[in-house]
Write a structure and sequence with these properties.
The complex is a heterodimer of chains A (about 190) and B (about 575). Chain A has about 190 residues and is of the alpha/beta class. Chain A contains eight helices and six strands. With about 575 residues, chain B is of the alpha/beta class. Classes of the chains: A alpha/beta (about 190), B alpha/beta (about 575).
Chain lengths: ~190, ~575
């Protein structure tokens, strides 16, 4: 069973990322379920979506501690969900920081050195400047696909499979920029090693 | 069509289309909204947004009686609004098939309560089907129409957040086009005066017996035999959770039809297994039925009536595995907030500043209750802000000058307008603020009677909110820009002093609408910022503190300028225009 968890903040595009992953697994002939989050949590709240693939998937939710790969679009969300990753699992996280309201209002502090904390807990961790790369493409909305491009190195499958999935999940007029974002993300993880 | 991935709601829409459904009327409500949005893309189906769920179901009943397969979709709290016509439609029955979908929200991901809609099936004596994934969503939606016509009954289709909002594999097929049935006047069947209703009640009871036979024999309910030491009765998402948790360590009686429930086949399954568990989220609906049959079952004594179940919980209870440890670290929470540039933010800032008591309503603006705005005192259900304002000030007339209602445009048409009629009719005081952001915001931008567009984006009559308020008898109606803080405050003082009902329409479009232009992001010049934190009081996610001074995250800021209006030191300017 492949268990992937995408964690982010409302508005960052975790939903699109999960749909692209779902299309990838469907195209290689696996049973797949993708749980999406709609509604209240789109308003800047914490958003998690699950992608599960295998011979036969029952629940769309990943049991705790069985996530193989955590894709985190924001640092604090990486920290929040890393305990769901199984020993030996991997984390691909963006360096982006989005302050939650209790931090903005001074009720609590944003944790420091999150990347070190995530790296230090025995998981394979890959840190990607996804937001900066997206800024470089003049479209911050594609940072989700940059990160997915990086994650694609760990998920596997040929680049054509991913390209087909992008075509299924992304509106035609945004396809080209998303292709570029994906390719830069994929290259970024290669550079990381 | 080849196998594809579909959202549960999308698959329901496909099932409606394949079944030859011609008429859909709904009111948006998470997690049900996408059914109607997806079905509106099929040209063979007439689909509309109605002002509320009662209107939607009544329209669907009319379409069914007129001979076309009809559908209405809603969330659990919407079913409460539609309950009145549904209970009587159970008596009239249908002509062409009539299906009503209700999406429950276990875990309250975006709802004001956690409600088990299965009780409605039993109370209204209607059959209810419950799919457990997208493939079943399509299949059950299609077969619900056949069941409806075969037994002359409306059929309820129960969904849940995790079924509505999960994608899984679906194999679509073609539409079965259906001619309209001929219309036949039949007052004894369709006019529910007491004499006719007494006859129809007997028909309902007879039908329920026939439907119990369907529950015994149909493929909606299936048995999956594995290890017989543990037997599980479950339906919908709870079945999938149980299947995930127990795999082949248990045998399953999977219910696709959850009312009426079978008796003989449940007894037979119980006799096959050593220990029988009912795994169902929320209430002990199936368990109660099993107990009535005299079956020894384990259920809510072991499982919580709260929220969604996880596979770990089910494993822990049934297999005695260790429950997973809770996440230990204290990680800052991330509650939802009003978007940067949200037009409601300025209004809530004024309400907070004036220390007004606020009766609230359902929509994005419910987020005005969160700190630092903390500007809502009461929130019950759609439309309740206006009617509860009336009750509040009748009992506390001394607070009439400091109590207001806030309600969105779509919510006002849903059920706020009747509250306003009541305020005028019963000579109430109090000010109603209609937060007109030119769209139905929280559910993801659905058109409504004041946007001037239909569900399909076709231009239509644009309801004039001010004229409507005047027409019900409100003498004092005014329109203001919620970003104009000083004018808003002055207007509130005036309206609250007036000894009669008044309405302020706070009008500014939702910042997420495609036609709303992003302005140049703002920046704070450090030397002029005194660190007074006045700009922090509006709860904008783009503003943050960096030690002593404040900064603005340019990737989040849309340049609405609200923070600049609050800065007494003139430290906030559009980027590139800072003072030296």
């Amino acid at each position: 069973m492949k268990n992937l968890l995408i964690a982010g903040v409302g508005g960052q595009g975790s939903l699109l990322a999960s749909r692209i992953l779902g299309a990838v697994y469907l195209s290689v002939g696996m049973d797949v379920k993708v749980s999406e989050v709609h509604g209240m949590s789109q308003r800047g709240g914490s958003v998690i979506t699950y992608v599960r693939a295998g011979d036969k998937v029952a629940s769309p939710l990943i049991p705790e501690g069985e996530t193989e790969l955590l894709i985190a679009l924001e640092q604090l969300e990486a920290l929040r969900w890393m305990s769901h990753v199984r020993p030996g699992g991997a984390v691909v996280m963006s360096t982006q920081i989005i302050l939650p309201m209790p931090v903005i209002t001074g009720q609590t502090a944003y944790p420091e050195n999150i990347a070190d904390a995530v790296c230090g807990c025995g998981l394979q961790t890959y840190v990607v400047q996804a937001h900066d790369i997206a800024v470089g493409l003049s479209d911050t909305r594609v940072s989700n696909v940059v990160l997915l491009g990086a994650a694609s190195r760990l998920v596997g499958f040929a680049p054509e499979v991913w390209d087909d999935a992008l075509r299924v999940a992304v509106k035609p007029r945004f396809l080209e920029i998303n292709r570029q974002a994906f390719a830069l993300g994929r290259a970024a993880l290669e550079a990381e090693g | 069509m080849a196998e594809t991935m579909m959202l549960g709601n999308q698959a329901v829409a496909r099932g409606l289309w394949e079944a030859g459904c011609r008429f859909v009327s709904s009111y948006p409500g998470t997690p049900s909204t996408e059914i109607t949005e997806y079905v509106s893309e099929y040209p063979e189906v007439y689909a509309e947004w109605a002002p509320n769920e009662k209107v939607a179901v009544e329209a669907a009943v009319g379409a069914s009686v007129a001979g076309a397969r009809a559908f209405s979709g809603m969330k659990h709290v919407g079913l409460n609004v539609a309950a009145d016509p549904i209970f009587t439609a159970a008596y009239t029955g249908v002509s062409a098939g009539l299906v009503v979908a209700v999406a429950d929200d276990q875990g309250m991901h975006s709802s004001q309560n956690e409600q088990d809609s299965r009780h409605y099936a039993r109370a209204a004596k209607l059959p209810m089907l419950e799919p457990s994934d997208s493939a079943e969503c399509l299949d059950f939606a299609r077969r619900a129409f056949d069941l409806s016509e075969a037994h002359d009954t409306p059929v309820l289709l129960r969904l849940s957040t995790r079924v509505s909002h999960s994608q899984s594999r679906v194999t679509p097929s073609e539409r079965q086009e259906r001619e309209r049935r001929p219309y036949q006047k039949d007052a004894g069947k369709y006019v529910m005066v007491p004499a006719a209703a007494r006859v129809r009640h007997a028909a309902v009871e007879t039908r329920l017996t026939a439907l119990t036979e369907v529950a015994e024999t149909s493929a909606f309910n299936t048995v999956e035999r594995h290890d017989k030491r543990i037997g599980v009765v479950a339906a919908g998402i709870a079945y999938q959770t149980a299947r995930e948790a127990l795999g082949e360590k248990a045998s399953y009686f999977k219910l696709g039809m959850i009312w009426p429930l079978p008796e003989a086949s449940l007894r037979a399954f119980a006799a096959e297994v050593d220990t029988l568990f009912v795994i169902e989220e929320l209430d002990d609906f199936i368990e109660t039925h099993c107990r009535k049959l005299g079956l020894a079952v384990q259920g809510k004594a072991l499982f919580s009536p709260l929220g969604e179940y996880t596979a770990e919980q089910v494993r822990a209870v049934i297999l005695g595995t260790e429950a997973p440890a809770q996440t230990p670290a204290a990680i800052p929470g991330r509650p939802p907030v009003l978007c940067p540039g949200c037009p409601h933010r300025g209004l809530f800032h004024v309400l907070h500043k004036m220390k007004l008591t606020v009766t609230g309503d359902i929509g994005c603006y419910t987020l005005g209750a969160s700190p630092p705005l903390s500007a809502i005192d009461l929130c019950i259900c759609m439309g309740a802000s206006v009617s509860s304002l009336h009750g509040f000030v009748q009992v506390r007339p001394e607070m009439a000058g400091q109590t207001v209602a806030v309600i969105g445009d779509s919510t006002f048409f849903h059920s706020g307008i009747t509250g306003l009629i009541n305020m005028v009719y019963n000579k109430s005081h109090g000010t109603v603020l209609i937060l007109d952001n030119a769209i139905t915001g929280m559910t993801g931008h659905q058109q409504n009677p004041a946007t001037g567009l239909t569900l399909q984006g076709v231009p239509t009559h644009k309801l004039d909110i001010e004229a409507l308020c005047r027409a019900v008898g409100v003498g004092r109606v005014r329109v203001l820009d919620p970003h104009d803080l000083a004018e808003m405050e002055a207007a509130l003082r005036e309206e609250l002093a007036a000894p009669e009902p008044s309405v302020i329409v706070a009008r500014r479009p939702c910042v997420l609408l495609p036609y709303v232009k992003r302005e140049t992001p703002l920046a704070i010049d450090g030397p002029n910022c005194r660190g007074c934190r006045a700009c922090m009081n509006i709860g904008c996610p783009a503003i943050r503190t960096d030690g002593r001074v404040m900064t603005i995250d340019r990737s989040l800021c849309v340049g609405c300028g609200l923070c600049a209006r609050l800065c007494r030191f003139g430290a906030i300017h559009p980027e590139g225009e800072q003072k030296a």
